[in-house]
Amino acid sequence: MPSSAVVTSRRHFLRASSILGAMVATAPAWANASVELPLPGGPDERPLTTVFPQKGQMILQRTRPPLLETPFEVFDRGIFTPNEQFFVRWHWAVIPEQVDVTTFRLAVHGHVNQMLSLSLADVLSMPRVELAAVNQCSGNSRGLFQPRVTGGEWFNGAMGNAKWTGVRLRDVLDRAGVKAGAVCVRFNGLDQPVVDGAPDYMKSIDLDHARDGEVMLAYQMNGEQLPLLNGFPLRLIVPGWYSTYWVKMLNDIEVLNAPDDNYWMKTAYRIPDTPRANVQPDETGFATVPINRMVPRSFFTNVTAATKLSPSATIPLRGIAFGGDSGVSLVELSIDGGQSWKKVQLGNDEGTYSFRRWNAKVTAPASGKLSLMVRCTNTKGVVQPDQPNWNSAGFMRNVIESIQLSVA
Amino acid sequence: MALSFQTAAYGAVVVVGVVLFSIGTPAERSSRSPVTETPVSHATPPTPGVSGNGVTLQSVSVEFPSSDRSFPGGAAAEAITDNCTACHSPGMVLNQPGLTPAHWQAEVQHMRTNFKAPVADADVPAIVAYLASTKGAR
Questions:
Q1: What confidence category does residue B38 fall into, taking pLDDT thresholds of 50, 70 and 90?
Q2: What pLDDT was estimated at residue B48?
Q3: Separation between Cα atoms, residue A211 and residue A185, nearest integer Å
Q4: Which of A78, A145, A333, A336 has its CA 20 to 30 Å from the CA of residue B80?
Q5: Contact A119/B60, CB-based, under 8 Å?
Q6: Does the pLDDT value for residue B18 go beyond 50?
Q7: Is the pLDDT assigned to residue A149 strictly greater than 90?
Q8: What is the pLDDT of residue A103?
Q9: Do A54 and B31 touch (CB under 8 A)?
Q10: Averaged pLDDT of chain B
Q11: Å from A308 to nearest chain B CA?
Q12: How far is CA A4 from CA B9, B10, B12, B16, in A?
């Protein structure tokens, strides 16, 4: 009886493990499998890894400093991206491996009446807010740019959606008292450059934006403290704006009385000041501005180019959409190469800046291919374009997604 | 010796516990690797926490893995290995698309100028030559 109990329990345990799917590595190898990303011209193979602390299975783009992409099938499981599979992106390799919550301090200084050094207990005692928002890398989908450009060669998984819990930046600023003449607020985290003299990673936003009541300091994502690699213990949340502003391990807020001319605002993360940040590959002489608001996107999550359909079968289609800097107004599907579009059903509205589920049904032809396109229009009336944009940094891709399914 | 049901059941529980402990939890196994041993919260003593308003934050201590990838090519890769891997692991470069020598030259210069990569002038040609041959435009 003892031994059979053991066997039974062990079997249960193994079954429970397999429900978690590939997140549980059968062999604790550094990289236990690989994935092929459809990047034009390659290289397209990336390891899948589970070795990063507090993270499940991720696509390994770079070990140091970590660039980890969310496997795309994760987005089919729900509109909130699990913390352990939320994408990771760091600029500099000096990242603390320990954070002591009892000694951590957040400094607020610069053009303020009263400098602050807030403990996490101080932050937790302030009025709490919660907001769902998509966090997307400026260069999400960079690997799909043609001609190809350098940088993190992401497919579409450098994004995620979470419920963020924390405090309003406005409340923190009010506690310090912003002096007249302040123009912007700069954010710095605990990470540091490897090389002396290299630019520390800092970002800033205008004072009005900082005080809009939506920008917040999050101490929880999806109801739990943040994984260290996602910015524990505090991360700036800038709803509707690209992730470059969502400073991780935030420990320093500086109110400036002049525009921020640090490298990461003045030189890096700039986009052409053109519609959709679009220029020709050989174009020069255009003005640039700091990257800012996100644009709408939508994706298929339950089918890929490898999906085979039965002849004349009716199949459920689903995916996710987000409006960027505003809500999702409508999502439309085309089965004729974009000549006609039909509205699809939208799932629960979890807030302006959240992913939104969409659902539809399509019937496969008797033979050949089924060509599908999906597009999102946001509540500001901005619709995804049918041609991809291009810029040398690989920023702001949001072309309509197309997919061809074969009838087998 | 008579074995009571209770004793047997207790024994079973202990054996199950030992087996599960030796297997490790899913979280433990998924975070282990030959490269690093990552501490997990339940395997270490309770970490200090800070609470307020019903939320508790707990101190975190982790270890990042190091890269097990190197630049292929033997001696030809010496300059890039010596000069570039302090700031980033080789995978960053190996995942890049093929580019022209001029493009690679500009990329190396970008690392030196903007990111203060301490690359000696004398090493630049070897790095660019390596990139152009390993990651050349097709």
A1: very low
A2: 84
A3: 10
A4: A145
A5: no
A6: no
A7: yes
A8: 97
A9: yes
A10: 78
A11: 30
A12: 11, 14, 9, 10
Q: How many angstroms separate the CA atoms of A266 and B74, rounded? A: 39
Q: How far B11 CA sits from the closest chain A CA (Å)?
A: 7
Rounded distance between C-alpha atoms, residue B63 and residue B59, angstroms: 14
pTM of the model: 0.87
Sign, CA dihedral A132-A136-A141-A147, equals positive
Question: Would the CB atoms of B89 and A62 count as touching at under 8 Å?
Answer: yes
CA distance A56 to A87: 11
Q: What is the C-alpha separation between A341 and A231, in angstroms, rounded?
A: 40
Cα–Cα nearest to B109, from B128, B94, B96: B128
- In chain B, the N- to C-terminal Cα span, in Å, equals 79
**Under 8 Å between Cβ of A17 and A24:** yes
User: Per the CB < 8 Å rule, is B116 touching A197?
Assistant: yes
* Nearest Cα residue to A101 out of A235, A236, A232, A246: A232
CB-closest option in A24, A63, A95 to B30: A24
Q: Which two tokens stand for residue A362?
A: 């399509």
CA closest to A193 among chain B residues: B87
ipTM: 0.89
Greater pLDDT, B27 or B84? B84
Q: What percent of chain A has pLDDT over 70?
A: 92
- With CB atoms and an 8 Å threshold, state whether B11 touches A124: no
Copy the structure tokens of residue A81.
């991206």
- Smallest CA–CA distance, residue A284 to chain B, in Å, is 16
Give me A293's structure tokens. 């608001």
The tens digit of pLDDT for each residue in A71-122 reads: 999 999 999 999 999 999 999 999 999 999 999 999 999 999 999 999 999 9
Residues 6+ positions from B131 with CB-CB distance below 8 Å = B80, B93, B99, B101, B104, B107, B108
Handedness of CA A378, A381, A385, A386 (dihedral sign): positive
Specify the DSSP class assigned to residue A196. Answer: T
Mean pLDDT in residue range A61-71: 98
Among candidates B19, B95, B103 on the partner chain, residue whose Cβ is nearest the Cβ of A10: B19
Give residue A408's pLDDT: 85
Cα(B36)–Cα(B29) distance, rounded to whole angstroms? 12
pLDDT tens per residue, range A192-215: 999 999 999 999 999 999 999 999
Longest alpha-carbon distance in chain A? 80
pLDDT at residue B25 in the model: 41
